[in-house]
Amino acid sequence: MADLKNAPVPDAETLVDIYRRMIRIERNDDAIRKTVRLGRLTMPYYSARGQEVIPSTISALLNKEDQICTIYRGIHDMVAKDMPLRPLWAEIAGRIDGTCKGKGGPMHLTHPESGVMVTTGVVGSSMPIANGLAWAAKLDGSKRVAIAYFGDGASNIGAFHESLNLASLWKLPVIFVCQNNGFAEHTRYENATSVDFISKRAAGYAMPGFTVDGNDPVAMYAAAHTAIARARDGEGPTLLECKTFRFFGHVLGDDDFYMTKEEKAAAMADDPLPKFRAKLIADGHATEDRLAKMQADIEAEIADAQEFGLNSPFPSADELRRDIFAEEIPA
Amino acid sequence: MADLKNAPVPDAETLVDIYRRMIRIERNDDAIRKTVRLGRLTMPYYSARGQEVIPSTISALLNKEDQICTIYRGIHDMVAKDMPLRPLWAEIAGRIDGTCKGKGGPMHLTHPESGVMVTTGVVGSSMPIANGLAWAAKLDGSKRVAIAYFGDGASNIGAFHESLNLASLWKLPVIFVCQNNGFAEHTRYENATSVDFISKRAAGYAMPGFTVDGNDPVAMYAAAHTAIARARDGEGPTLLECKTFRFFGHVLGDDDFYMTKEEKAAAMADDPLPKFRAKLIADGHATEDRLAKMQADIEAEIADAQEFGLNSPFPSADELRRDIFAEEIPA
Amino acid sequence: MSEMVKMNGLQAINAAMFEAMEADPKVLVLGEDIADREGGGVTGTMRGLSTKFGDHRVCTTPISEQAIIGAAIGVAINGYKPVAEIMLMNFTTVAMDMIFNHAAKLRFMSGGQTSVPLTIRTLTGAGWQTAGQHADHLEGWFAHAAGIKVVCPSNPADYKGLLLSCIQDPDPCLFVETGGTLFVPGEVAVDQGPIPLGKARIVQEGTDVTIISYSTMMLRCQAALAGLAEAGISAELIDLRTISPWDKQAVLDSAAKTGRVVIVHEAVRNFGPGAEIAATINEELYGQLKGPVRRLGGPYSPVPFSKPLEDAFLVTPEQIVEAVKGLMG
Amino acid sequence: MSEMVKMNGLQAINAAMFEAMEADPKVLVLGEDIADREGGGVTGTMRGLSTKFGDHRVCTTPISEQAIIGAAIGVAINGYKPVAEIMLMNFTTVAMDMIFNHAAKLRFMSGGQTSVPLTIRTLTGAGWQTAGQHADHLEGWFAHAAGIKVVCPSNPADYKGLLLSCIQDPDPCLFVETGGTLFVPGEVAVDQGPIPLGKARIVQEGTDVTIISYSTMMLRCQAALAGLAEAGISAELIDLRTISPWDKQAVLDSAAKTGRVVIVHEAVRNFGPGAEIAATINEELYGQLKGPVRRLGGPYSPVPFSKPLEDAFLVTPEQIVEAVKGLMG
Ligand SMILES: Cc1ncc(C[n+]2csc(CCOP(=O)(O)OP(=O)(O)O)c2C)c(N)n1
Ligand SMILES: Cc1ncc(C[n+]2csc(CCOP(=O)(O)OP(=O)(O)O)c2C)c(N)n1
Ligand SMILES: [Mg+2]
Ligand SMILES: [Mg+2]
């Protein structure tokens, strides 16, 4: 089975690209949180602040046509996958110019052009569908891979088991990426999960499984590269458990009573974003100027997207009869 | 974690008791098959002929108040658990004197007095409910254990995963007994199960898991004893994968085209029943006479039960309004 | 009349749970996030229970809905009275085998030997922009399933009284909480006891038209009453409270009296619960009605995210008034 | 008229599958036991497909209904047309999240960007003494779910034509096979092509009463026709064929003509599909009917095992005749 010892190390440009994705996620998340708090967005918001490294590193290894299936806490996965921000903002604002015409909202953002195929609000349900995306890749004779993103809590639901078994059996080009942030809503990992490492479950499907520091781009790169290469080479699926932390609780407004102040503070102090930025500069991979310029460009992109989204018109009530089926439902 | 090295060996009387249960299962199965073939029973019948050792050995280690949750292929599990045969026969004949007044039939035989709490026709569904039986045992402060019987095919469904995780987390006194007969309906083990040994999945729940020869009473005894002792001692659940074979296909009438003649013949030649009988005598644990007498008594019990069952009256149509709820549904 | 206190549905549920657990040591609670460590449930309705009654009676579970209902069934068969939470009604779909094929059927399939005194609490309802997978009203599915009762409270007193009844009931009950009603305060008798299942409540008597509803739509029906009164229409408003078994007698008596019926629910109109009620009224009161039984319900669509669409998805008080006026002809 | 051949439903399904797979390389099959190695499905309807089209297009799966429908959804989103089998309708409960929350809703929730051209084949029906967990008619649940079509054939020609349409349909379809109809031979045109979804079939024209049914109960309605003719009653018999969307126009036209309606299905009567049809007829044809719309369906009970009980569970031709006579007054 695969191991990570000989996995490649990301070069400077890849590292900068990972950082670019991370900062785009973080700036966008910040803008969304501010807008929600101002009451200008009225959705429930599941921030993934703190989890940027995982999809940023994976996406740096993906092609545009590779596909992902993600969850309610998934906007970081989409932004990492280069989803354009204008239709994203219009969607979370419930507008007609949204990716889903405002019908899906933040929990169901979809953008096939960027490879964002399904976003689900049901825990565990990204995995069975990602198998199907991977099956199509295989039938197409392509080298495409599919990513199933899900949380640690989702690793305890039946769909996880059925999906990993089928993927292994059919050698599907899918990577099961568990973003283990230590909590499922308010429930601590150890109060819901009987095993110390979710990656140990992979052995039950004769599948390689790795636990990696999901806040470390180099470790993530090694694991993701190995898994993606395996998938592209027709060797089948991999389970990646990526340890991380969410800074803004389960849903915006959640007051974090279920964790200790110390663990929260420690996690925040370990924020991967400034750490990685500092390291990029220290290692000479990027200059302060380059990163500042990058950030300014991203902020401009976000400001434009926000402006666009919040000014797009709402859909008309007729939309309730459209997209149920291919044909419109008669009034 | 538990291992089987120091597990106890069954004494002579226990071995004879296991044999008694086995022959009661086999004689009863034979009688049912004959009666079905004569058209005097009209049910679908899932014979467990060949799988006698598993529940016989386990039941020799259980008390009356221990509880089981089994499946459509489960009459052997019930007979092993000393379920009386008269109401069993009346039930499979659909009569009012059946355990379930004829309403449940062979796939839903229930007899709480014998500890047969639930029989399900849905693959995998014995496990979540067995957890609840075990939870009650724990809440009662009793030493009772619960057994979940299921097949190899069932180990691929979501309920398996959820159940094992919860049982391990809550340290429930439940034993997950997978009767791995190598086939799920017509599908071979390896075409549905990604891992070579189902017992390997136990590690994913920090639970001990063993693969044993389910046709060998001594091996079964060691594993079952270990698992049951663990459960009674409050140490939590165990997964037992018991390898066996079913001699009459998935459902009576099934023509076995999906297996090779050779493997079928080899399995039949390895029939645990005559082998064990011969060994009991050879080892001096029982005389030919004793076993013959035992068999004759059992045959008489079965003949009586059959007579009783097939002559019991059918339920009246009013029964469609009873037992939906505690109160009768008004006509 | 006994002393009244003001509380909302959340508090009423919490009060019912405390009373039920105190009165009967067999009452248990299980579900995601429900111990105090986790906040006593996402809406806080189970708050205080684990601290008071212990972690063995109030158990936070993994996200494993099949395991939740399975454990509840097994423990119930052994004489316990579990109150299991499925966080949202849409997630009953992952536990549907356990609920429908097992909980609802075990009494029958065992010929009455086993029973499953299980209460499943769940939450639903549109209006919170939670979109397509968090707001469906599926009570009609469960009403179509023999062996499980379906209870849909609309106000704090009913939340308390009906929950107490569900817990005491010897059979499985689905107890449907709605975001639209849980936060609305109301008067509850300090000694509010169990309210019988299967009995509707006449909220307002009237002679011209019978309006039948339950859950959140009750509030919209109540909001429509002023408009109807203004128009000189005397409306009788019935809160079904229990969808299965539903109170046929109360409904038929009222419909026979007024001769006009409007049924209002949030569930999708097509093949929804209103169809059964309408079909029954038409069948039983053939020739005695003054107009067709009207049904108002959700359009044939998933619940949309966008606020204006979500608003359009829900029946409004104005539409209820319109429907009644249409009947008055 | 084209040449006819005699075949049963099993053969008709098999023929449809061969044609669909030959015509379109995007058509796939998945389910338990469905490759030839396993016998081409428990009823043999998929026989020959894996041999002819290969194991990559015809895939036997583990017993993992969520994974089956999930894989089918994912592949469908990418332009394939999977035909997924859920062996029995009762097992749709373990895949209900995938079917209801995902397959049915993805087109809407994605604003039309993705579609799920998935056909789910499943089998059900009482009469085989398979008891409480193997015979339920749950089509009413799916009809209440926006975004999935529900198709219930009753004869070989419809099995073929409707299955071809389901496979070609750009949206998810639930195709319900029944033990009571699959084995009954009938005439099928050699060139039988797709039969449009949503269109009922008038099986017999008549002027006194409209009988509406589908699936196995169609055969019992047909068996009732002789008795009705004998009694001098001219019955119009409608096979709905598609339950959702159902053919309102055909039903209303017929009901308006005859003024009397009896609806017959095997599904439990309470909150069953017949309620929607009855409620709609009453609403649309208020004042034009000559009697109440009658509904015959399963009692409020799980399906029983015992033969006499199972017989009593099912509506009989005699009961249909009785119901019609009752309406004739
Ligand atoms: C089947 C199901 N059960 C319950 C929920 C409610 N719920 C939403 S998110 C969540 C926690 C999930 O935790 P995890 O998988 O760790 O992901 P995270 O939110 O931490 O990213 C729960 C219980 C749901 N959406 N689906
Ligand atoms: C959820 C579900 N899916 C499919 C079936 C149909 N079915 C009945 S038995 C069976 C095979 C089960 O195989 P296994 O678990 O190995 O048990 P065995 O029959 O070999 O004892 C299948 C697929 C079912 N009963 N339940
Ligand atoms: Mg988490
Ligand atoms: Mg097997």
From TrEMBL, chains A, B:
The EC number(s) this enzyme carries: 1.2.4.1
Enzyme class, spelled out: oxidoreductase
Catalysed conversion reaction: N(6)-[(R)-lipoyl]-L-lysyl-[protein] + pyruvate + H(+) = N(6)-[(R)-S(8)-acetyldihydrolipoyl]-L-lysyl-[protein] + CO2
UniProt function note: The pyruvate dehydrogenase complex catalyzes the overall conversion of pyruvate to acetyl-CoA and CO(2). It contains multiple copies of three enzymatic components: pyruvate dehydrogenase (E1), dihydrolipoamide acetyltransferase (E2) and lipoamide dehydrogenase (E3).
Pfam family of the protein (one): E1_dh
Residues in Dehydrogenase E1 component domain copies: 21-315
Molecular-function GO term, any one: pyruvate dehydrogenase (acetyl-transferring) activity
Stated name of the protein: Pyruvate dehydrogenase E1 component alpha subunit
Top-level taxon: Bacteria
Keywords assigned: Oxidoreductase, Pyruvate, Thiamine pyrophosphate
Signal peptide bounds: none
Cross-referenced InterPro entries: DH_E1, PDH_E1_Alpha_Subunit, THDP-binding
Species assigned in the record: Sphingobium boeckii
Biological process annotations from GO: pyruvate decarboxylation to acetyl-CoA
CDD domains linked: TPP_E1_PDC_ADC_BCADC
Cofactor(s) for this UniProt protein: thiamine diphosphate
TrEMBL record, chains C, D:
Coiled-coil features, chain-numbered ranges: none
InterPro entries for this protein: THDP-binding, Transketo_C/PFOR_II, Transketolase-like_Pyr-bd, Transketolase_C
CC cofactor: thiamine diphosphate
One Pfam family named in its UniProt record: Transketolase_C
Keywords: Oxidoreductase, Pyruvate, Thiamine pyrophosphate
Transketolase-like pyrimidine-binding domain sequence ranges: 7-184
EC number from the UniProt entry: 1.2.4.1
Gene3D superfamilies recorded: 3.40.50.920, 3.40.50.970
GO-annotated molecular function: pyruvate dehydrogenase (acetyl-transferring) activity
Enzyme class, UniProt record, top EC level: oxidoreductase
Taxonomy, superkingdom: Bacteria
Keyword Oxidoreductase: yes
Keyword Oxidoreductase: yes
Name recorded for this polypeptide: Pyruvate dehydrogenase E1 component beta subunit
Species in which this protein is naturally found: Sphingobium boeckii
